[in-house]
Write a structure and sequence with these properties.
Oligomer: single chain
Distance between the termini: 40 Å
Largest sheet: none
CATH superfamily of the largest domain: Hypothetical protein, domain 2
Radius of gyration: 20 Å
CATH class of the largest domain: Mainly Alpha
CATH topology of the largest domain: Endonuclease III, domain 1
Number of helices: 12
CATH architecture of the largest domain: Orthogonal Bundle
Number of domains: 2
Strand content: under 5%
Order of helices and strands: HHHHHHHHHHHH
Bound molecules: iron/sulfur cluster
Shape: elongated
Helix content: 40-55%
Length: 245
């Protein structure tokens, strides 16, 4: 029997021109988009981003000043033990895992990268505790290399709008990256994250959305107010949508 060919990957509903227009509208709505983590260099942002998993940026910013004072460089952090770090980062949650990641990250930087944070995605994702999203945050905000971090907000907002179509962050990163010029990647991600936090929440506030006219979710009635007593807003019913939380 002839071998079945894999089906082509799904494509976003909107063409790149519309994606760029949508992002311009949202950037105008959120001119303050940018990372809310406080940092002075790539090492500090890398550390703060590892700590931000399952934690608010605000809480991370409360913890990092004393942490960076005590461990100002990867070399200083590499000499610590996870047990020494744990009490300092405890408020950020998952502190045992995070302390192991931080010390492992610092030791790898010292052992393999001369104590510097590499400006390279493949090298970054090999560091303990660093996934693709964290690597892209650091590249885009601290190392001057375009990066397009895709978190749960970007996934939800981009799929609803129709500028991406996948529940897989890597696929969404590729789809958005293909539609936007590289210099716009980091701001686009920051903008979609902020839009997801403020407006396009799990229960979206579509009446406040600057991109409403181009949103598939809204066009399909997904953004209408729930009926009295309903616990959740309507989910999209169109086959154009990919379910994303
Ligand atoms: S119209 Fe509603 S669902 Fe669409 S992006 Fe805006 S807030 Fe989100």
């Amino acid at each position: 029997m002839p071998r079945r060919r894999d089906s082509p990957p799904p494509q976003p509903a909107h063409p790149p021109t519309v994606t760029r227009r949508v992002l311009r509208l949202l950037e105008a709505q959120h001119p303050d988009a940018g990372t809310e983590l406080t940092f002075r260099n790539a090492y500090e942002l890398l550390t703060a981003t590892i700590l931000s998993a399952q934690c608010t940026d605000e809480r991370v910013n409360q913890v990092t000043p004393s942490l960076f004072e005590r461990y100002p460089t990867p070399a200083a952090l590499a000499k610590a033990t996870p047990e020494e770090i744990e009490p300092q980062i405890r408020p950020t949650g998952f502190f045992r895992t995070k302390s192991r990641s931080l010390v492992g990250m610092a030791r790898t930087l010292v052992g393999h990268h001369g104590g510097e944070v590499p400006a390279d995605l493949d090298a970054l994702v090999r560091l303990p505790g660093v996934g693709r999203k964290t690597a892209n945050v650091v590249l885009g905000h601290a190392l001057g290399v375009p990066g397009l971090p895709v978190d749960r907000h970007v996934l939800r907002v981009a799929n609803r709008l129709g500028i991406a179509r996948s529940a897989d962050p890597v696929v969404v990163e590729r789809q958005l990256g293909a539609a936007l010029p590289k210099p716009r990647w980091t701001l686009a991600s920051d903008t979609l994250i902020l839009h997801g936090r403020r407006i396009c929440k799990p229960r979206p506030l579509c009446d406040r959305c600057g991109a409403r006219k181009m949103c598939l979710y809204f066009a399909d009635g997904g953004g209408t107010a729930p009926a009295r007593g309903a616990g959740r807003s309507r989910r999209p019913t169109s086959s154009r949508k990919t379910p994303v939380p």
